[in-house]
Amino acid sequence: MRVYIEGDGFAWINRTTPSADPTPRNPVALKLAMADPAANVLYLARPCQFAASPLPAGCNLHWWTDRRFSSQAVDVMNDALTQFVQRHPGVQLELVGYSGGGNIAALLAARRGDVRSLRTVAGNLDVAYVNALHRVSPMPQALSAIDVAPQLAALPQVHFTGAQDTTVPASVAKRYQQAADSRCVQVIEVPGMDHGSDWAARWPALLTSPPDCH
Q1: Which of 34, 71, 138, 156 has an alpha carbon within 20 to 30 A of 201's alpha carbon?
Q2: What does the pLDDT look like over 68-81, one tens digit per residue?
């Protein structure tokens, strides 16, 4: 089963003002899932996305701002995935994450025993590095994929990065690849693509480059 994990969504109105609703205006991971011809596809939004207004009482802005990569946030995503997997005993998962969802996907892969591959699209795989690039506040509680890269060294992975992406540039995936130091980790730079480009239009073709340990 291929599992798609959404990005951070509409987390901030501007550099200093959090959004009141993190639902993505451009749900790239949802569009990727819709473009996937596979028979078994699951889409997971991030906490508090696509919730009815007003948001539930438990939805405070920390879920999509400074604590969006916290251990608690990863636990919530892992629990949601486990609840679904329990309905399908023995299922093996292929995780796909977009942007911040790429970070979540890697962290889930490190926690689970039923993941057989990992793909990311414009994945934020090094949170501290990306925050430093954009000169935004550090996130002390954030977990980061780059820290579990050695643990995932034997997992087949492909990390797609846009050649025109200035939000999560190609250097992020390359730093992760270096940390993993594994023949199972591929980085593919896609010409003409930036962070919010129409990745779904390219997705069926990109799926023909499967994760593999060369």
Answers
A1: 156
A2: 999 999 999 999 99
